[in-house]
Design a protein that fits this description.
The complex is a heterotrimer of chains A (287), B (526) and C (378).
Chain A lengths: L15 H20 L6 H26 L5 H40 L6 H7 L27 H24 L3 H32 L7 H33 L9 H26 L1
Chain B lengths: L18 H7 L3 H29 L10 H36 L7 H20 L25 H29 L12 H32 L13 H18 L2 H15 L6 H14 L15 H13 L1 H15 L8 H24 L1 H7 L3 H31 L5 H28 L13 H30 L36
Helix pairs in contact in B: 2-3, 2-4, 2-16, 3-4, 3-5, 3-14, 4-5, 5-6, 6-7, 6-8, 6-9, 8-11, 8-12, 8-14, 9-11, 11-12, 12-14, 12-15, 14-15, 15-16
Chain C lengths: L1 H20 L14 H34 L15 H29 L7 E8 L2 E6 L4 E5 L3 H6 L22 E4 L4 E7 L4 E5 L4 E5 L5 E5 L5 E7 L11 E7 L1 H21 L6 H20 L17 H4 L2 H10 L15 H12 L12 H7 L2
Parallel strand pairs in C: 1-5, 4-10
Antiparallel strand pairs in C: 1-2, 2-3, 5-8, 6-7, 6-9, 9-10
Helix pairs in contact in C: 1-2, 2-3, 6-9, 9-10
The chains are: A mainly alpha (287), B mainly alpha (526), C alpha+beta (378).
The structure holds heme-A (2 copies), dinuclear copper ion and copper (II) ion (CU).
The site of one heme-A has 34 residues of chain B, from helix 2, helix 3, helix 14 and helix 16.
């Protein structure tokens, strides 16, 4: 809890936030004009570049301060709690999409099929509709498609992510007991597993688009499928990049057995991505 | 910035950097609090100016000033600006200024991120307001942005969505900072149940924010993909449902309205004991009531959707759950009244606003309770009765609490007393005109005037004219408010440390204005 | 049970008072309506209103008493109490009891509202930007109802018309929906484009009209009369201008009306089979354009930049006639441009296309015959 605060590090003014804001602003304008077809994607990419630049600078500063020992226990606590709540906000972001999937499967599609309170909806508006989940809706949006099976690549990917959860924990144990070789080995394995996962997922997407006619346009099934797995994939990508950065920092010897908050934060994040995948595997693929 | 030379700066009382860069790069909670508050005031003026357009057009039946399309843009942007640009940043500004001082901390826990939380906002609102000048105009589908209508928005559409994403990022980071500060930065001895209620209510508000802003982000992201990437979330043809959006939106939206009122409860719980010269009645039940309201706020969302055709069981559940909120809110109201009971009251401007809050917010709460009765809501829904309800809780609730807070702490922040005469004038003008403005809207709604219409049947003329006149007076009174604040910043009678005779709490142990870094040494807590 | 009678007593007394003070100009309170449901809702409304008023009197009374008595300027000295388990317990329990007593009648009314069994007839109501379409599912009648033309003119910004001189300003339509009294009428609401909400206060409820779904509601109207309402869900630019007029007639008048409507429809259908002259088509087209298209594309065909395209000089309008027919009949997905094939008759579509191709400076000289449209429907 509370500590004597004379040592709590309160940084000087920083210009990274404003750089970040300008980056976000540019990205937003770029994305909006691009989607509107008013301009090409360049402004969007420029904005992203500014954001990446900001992250390098900002994290660079933090790493520097951390290495020069400016952070005491209490600062460390702040970082930990901050990261936890950030992950919680991500959980809620995914919860929204899971909620949508739940609603579509248990309410909107059954109603369109005439179940529950949907009798008139079905009789008057969509009498020909009879396709239960997985479905692309009464108007057959996107045309005939094939649903994604669970017991091929997705099951393999589940194994891969679960193992990566194990390897990152092994790496953490190695770090805590000061075994540098093992740390780098297991962390490297985690990165590799993450990358493999992404490779498989890319393959799965290509397959879906080219052979199964399963796309974002495939009614509610395609929408929920790609939105959930897509945002998850994005998070795996971010997680893998973060793991890679941590791996580099391990190689540079940034962490000690007692002080390695950055490592732990990334590990938490990775576990979060892992858990979300389990949810996806069950609710999107299996059921 | 040279990080190489940075050492433990926290306790050297170096002053701020000079010039504009001070404000852009600052990591100081007081500077950032000031920025938030000024930003909120500007947004309040902009959103208020839009409300004046609405009231002017509604002064008479027939279309006089604006086209229907522009009217809808005014309604929509008025609400977005007031909620996300006015009230929320004002509360965050107060949190920044006050929480570290109230819990005896040197600053917010994550000062650099604190800066970023603020500096996203001006960019987000530039984006939002710029849409008003685009082809096809700004967003016009109401602040609730229901599809499929919102998908008909012109070029403004992606700008609106992305600006909301940015506001969300800002609020989430701001709330993380509040939670971490409260959980990790309290001075030794400042246990949770010793914290001032403002801190408590903000802690709970911050949880609400972190739990719901991401859901809003998800909702608007699906709007974006439905429009540009061919998804069918909100289209029956593809197996989705337009009502699905409403569920997701209100899962955010209902907790959001408590985000707009819980910090107000906190402020009122600080002010009433001070001027009653008597400790707050039922401190711990206040804390539990706040927590109960927050909990209930997650299971009542569909009371905004009674008319969308939910199954009966759903309507009953949401009706009962909503009615339950009256209980913890009632506990709060009764506790405030009991705090005043047998006090030794004086009526400086902050207290006047606080009393008006208790009175008028409760009236808004009563109309809320009437709306919660599902069968009756079949008549009330989407009429001016609802508009009256939420302006009573938002204007004489949230906004009055902010004004009370400004009068209460302004002497602390600036070191100058505000002009009490002008303050009282501002209060009476605001309180009276606010009722002239919004009370007749109850009658309009009951008599059958729908909301979000630019023109109305002649029978509604009388009350609309009264309401508009009240609106103009209320608007002009806020110009007086700006003047009072400006005058106090510029000068005035020096304020003492404690400012108010009955004030309790750590912030009153610091000089007025407080030093750049508040508690370099942790204060002793009794 | 004693209490609830007491509440009822207060309620009726108060409603009498309110009803008395309510002149036509300044109606203060909710309408009592003309259906059993609307009466229940009104009673419920009055009950909860007076309960709130009563609680308000107690709470505000206590507060203002304290404000008046316990002030420093009157020499009041602050007490120091700050909790009381009994009081806090009491003011948790009492509100709960009050709420339960409100919830019981509310639940009853809600269950009655949702009981759709044994209806005598069904009307499907479709919201369309910015008009209503009514389909009498049992009688095969179907028509569109929009804001009456005179009102539509008056509500334009520069109309120069004094709207206060117009009777029922904005609450008048060209074709009201006619219903019999004393029958349980089932209303199915849905929409074509965006969400609307069908609301006639005298019936005691509103129900959202949601594209792709159907909501159900019912009404049994006690007495003949004209009952007015409006769309109650923001549905775009002209949301404020899509009123509803329900005319309730007794059984035999209603039957006459049905017969007349059927005849009208048969005549219209027959007229599609003959060839129309250009003049006829232009005249008819001007009418259709004014009621169905001008809201978006504007009376002068200039549209609204950024929202609705101009038809004057439009490449599509001046181009091959097939493209034009296709756009009007099938609309354009994802935009406000609806598919008019299901909304207008062959004659109307033919006429409006002919009109557009020969107005606003579009001098194509083309004439489109109803037969062409009929063929295109296949
Ligand atoms: C600060 C914001 C705020 C607050 C605090 C509230 C508080 C409440 N609101 Fe409100 N509400 C809004 C902001 C807010 N609301 C907004 C913005 C909308 C419209 C959104 C839109 O559509 O654009 C809205 C709409 C809205 C609706 C939807 C109406 C409709 O669209 O048809 C409903 C329905 O149930 C509702 C109910 C309530 C209830 C029950 C409370 C309760 O919390 C009130 C509880 C308080 C009291 C009851 C008074 C004090 C209690 C006592 C003295 C105890 C004893 C009392 C009894 C036993 C009765 N609100
Ligand atoms: C915190 C939120 C908040 C606040 C503070 C306000 C404040 C005000 N609101 Fe609003 N309002 C909403 C939130 C809020 N509102 C929401 C959520 C909606 C629903 C939107 C929707 O349907 O989607 C809404 C909708 C709404 C409507 C209904 C519109 C419609 O349905 O078409 C109206 C109409 O009267 C209205 C009026 C006002 C007025 C007169 C004020 C006044 O209190 C404002 C006073 C302030 C000023 C006037 C600014 C200060 C002065 C100047 C800038 C100087 C110039 C002054 C003059 C020329 C007199 N608001
Ligand atoms: Cu249709 Cu509003
Ligand atoms: Cu709500």
């Amino acid at each position: 809890m509370a500590h004597a605060q004379t040592d709590y590090y309160v940084p000087h003014g920083s210009h990274w936030p404003i750089v970040g804001s300008i980056g976000l602003f540019t990205t937003a304008i770029g994305a909006a004009t691009w989607m509107n077809g008013q301009a090409g994607p360049w402004l969007f990419y420029a904005g992203l570049a500014v954001i990446i630049f900001m992250m390098f600078g900002w994290f660079g500063t933090v790493i520097h301060e951390s290495l020069s020992g400016m952070y005491n226990r209490q600062v460390d606590h702040s970082f930990r709690q901050g990261m936890m709540w950030f992950i919680f906000s991500e959980v809620m972001f995914f919860a929204a999409f899971f909620g949508v999937l739940f609603y579509a499967r248990n309410f909107s599609v059954p109603w369109l099929l005439g179940m529950g309170s949907g009798l008139s909806t079905h009789e008057v508006l969509w009498p020909a509709y009879n396709q239960a989940w997985p479905t692309n809706g009464p108007a057959d949006v996107g045309g005939d498609f094939e649903a994604m099976r669970a017991w091929g690549i997705p099951a393999l990917n589940t194994l891969i992510l679960l193992s990566s959860g194990v390897t990152v924990t092994l790496a953490h144990w190695a770090l805590k007991s000061g075994e540098r070789g093992k740390l780098i080995l297991w962390l490297g394995a985690t990165v590799a597993l993450g990358a493999t996962f992404l490779g498989f997922q890319a393959y799965e997407y290509i397959h879906a688009y080219h052979e199964m006619n399963l796309t974002l346009h495939t009614g509610i099934y395609g929408s929920t499928f790609f939105m959930l797995t897509g945002f998850h994939g994005l998070h795996v990508t971010i997680g893998t990049i973060m793991l890679l950065v941590i791996l580099l920092r391990c190689l540079k010897g940034h962490f000690t057995p007692d002080e390695h908050f950055a490592f732990e934060a990334v590990a938490w994040y990775w576990h979060f991505v892992d858990v979300v995948w389990l949810g996806l595997f069950i609710f999107v693929y299996v059921l | 910035m040279s990080t190489a030379t940075a050492t433990h700066d926290a306790h050297e009382d170096h002053g701020p950097a000079k010039g504009l860069m001070r404000w852009i790069t600052t990591t100081n909670h007081k500077d950032i609090g000031t920025l938030y508050l000024i930003f909120a005031l500007i947004m309040f003026m902009i959103g208020g100016a839009m409300a004046m357009v609405i009231r002017a057009e509604l002064f008479q039946p027939g279309m006089q000033l604006v086209d229907p399309a522009f009217f809808n843009q005014m309604t929509t942007v008025h609400a977005l600006v007031m909620i996300f640009g006015g009230v929320m940043p004002a509360f965050t500004g107060l949190a920044n200024w006050l929480i570290p001082m109230m819990i005896g901390a040197p600053d917010m826990a994550l000062p650099r991120m604190n800066n970023w939380s603020f500096w996203i906002l001006p960019f987000a609102f530039t984006l939002l307001l710029s849409t008003l000048f685009m082809d096809g105009g700004g967003p016009a589908a109401g602040w609730t942005m229901y599809p499929p209508l919102v998908l008909q928005t012109g070029d403004a559409f992606p700008f609106m969505i992305l600006s909301i994403h940015m506001m969300g990022i800002s609020s989430i980071m701001g709330s993380i900072n509040v939670i971490v500060t409260i959980m990790n930065m309290r001075a030794p001895g400042m246990t949770l149940m010793k914290m001032p209620l403002f801190v408590w209510t903000w802690l709970i508000t911050a949880y609400l924010l972190i739990a719901t802003m991401p859901v809003l982000a998800g909702a608007v992201t699906m709007l974006l993909t439905d429009k540009f990437f061919g998804t069918s979330f909100f289209s029956a043809a593809g197996g989705g449902d337009p009502v699905l959006y409403q569920h997701v939106f209100w899962f955010f939206g209902h907790p959001e309205v408590y985000i707009l009122i819980l910090p107000a409860f906190g402020i009122i719980s600080q002010i009433i004991p001070t001027f009653a010269r008597k400790p707050l009645f039922g401190y711990s039940s206040m804390v539990y009531a706040t927590a109960s309201i927050a909990f209930l706020s997650f299971i009542v969302w569909a009371h905004h959707m009674f008319t969308v055709g939910m199954p009966t069981a759903g309507e009953l559940f949401f009706m009962y759950a909503t009615m339950m909120i009256a209980v913890p809110t009632g506990v709060k109201v009764f506790n405030w009244v009991s705090t005043m009971w047998k006090g030794s009251m004086t009526f400086e401007t902050p207290m006047l606003f606080a009393i008006a809050f208790v009175f008028l917010f409760t009236i808004g709460g009563f109309s809320g309770l009437m709306l919660a009765i599902a069968p009756a809501d079949f008549q009330y829904h989407d009429t001016y009765f609802v508009v009256a309800h939420f302006h009573y809780v938002l204007v004489s609730g949230a906004v009055f609490s902010i004004m009370a807070a400004v009068y209460y702490w302004l002497p602390k922040w600036t070191g100058h007393m505000y002009d009490e005469k002008l303050g009282k004038l501002h209060f009476w003008l605001s309180a009276i005109s606010m009722n002239v403005l919004f009370f007749p809207q109850h009658f309009l709604g009951l008599a059958g005037m729908p909301r979000r219409i630019p023109d109305y049947s002649v029978q509604f003329t009388g009350f609309n004219q009264i309401s508009s006149i009240g609106g103009f007076v209320f608007g002009l009174s806020q110009v007086l408010f700006c003047y009072i604040v400006y005058k106090t910043i510029k000068g005035g009678q020096p304020a003492s440390e404690k400012v108010w005779e009955g004030a309790q709490g750590l912030e009153w142990t610091l000089p007025s204005p407080p030093p750049y870094h508040s508690f370099v040494e942790a204060p002793a807590i009794k | 049970m004693k209490r609830s009678t007491a509440v009822k007593g207060v309620t009726t007394l108060a409603s009498l008072l309110l009803a008395e003070s309510a002149s036509a100009e300044y109606r203060l309170n909710m309408t009592q309506g003309v259906t059993p449901i609307s009466h229940d809702v009104y009673d419920l409304h009055m009950t909860i209103l007076w309960v709130c008023v009563a609680i308000g009197i107690v709470v505000f009374g206590a507060m203002f008493y304290a404000v008046y008595k316990h002030r420093k300027s009157k020499g009041a000295v602050a007490a120091n109490f700050h909790e009381s388990t009994f009081a806090e317990f009491a003011w948790t329990i009492v509100p709960i009891l009050i709420l339960v007593s409100m919830a019981i009648p509310a639940t009853k009314t809600l269950l009655a509202m949702d009981d759709l069994s044994d209806s005598d007839m069904t009307i499907k109501v479709t919201g369309i930007q910015w008009k209503w379409k009514y389909d009498y599912l049992d009688d095969g009648i179907s028509f569109i109802s929009s804001l009456a033309p005179e009102h539509n003119q008056a509500r334009q910004r520069d109309s120069g018309i004094d709207v206060t001189k117009i009777e029922n300003y904005l609450l008048e339509v060209d074709h009201p929906v006619v219903v019999p009294v004393g029958k349980k009428i089932r209303f199915l609401t849905t929409a074509n484009d965006v969400i609307h909400s069908w609301w006639v206060p005298a019936l005691g409820w509103k129900k959202d009209a949601i594209p792709g779904f159907i909501n159900e509601m019912w009404a049994r109207i006690d007495k003949p009369g004209v009952y007015r309402g409006q769309c109650a869900e923001l549905c775009g630019k002209d949301h404020g201008f899509m009123p509803i007029v329900v005319v309730a007639k007794n059984e035999s008048d209603y039957r006459d009306w049905v017969a007349m409507k059927k005849q009208e429809q048969a005549d219209a259908l027959a007229s599609a089979d003959r060839a129309w002259s250009k003049d006829e088509l232009m005249k008819k087209g001007a009418q259709v354009y004014a009621t169905s298209c001008a809201a978006c594309h504007q009376a002068n065909g200039q549209g609204l930049p950024g929202a609705f395209p101009a038809l004057a000089g439009s490449a599509l309008v001046k181009g091959p006639v097939e493209g034009h027919i296709d756009r009007v009949m099938n609309g354009k997905q994802g935009t406000a441009m609806a598919a008019f094939a299901g909304l207008l008759s062959d004659v109307e579509i033919a006429a409006v296309i002919t009109y557009e191709r020969n107005s606003f400076g579009n001098d194509t000289g083309d004439v489109v015959q109803p037969a062409t449209i009929k063929a295109a429907r296949k």
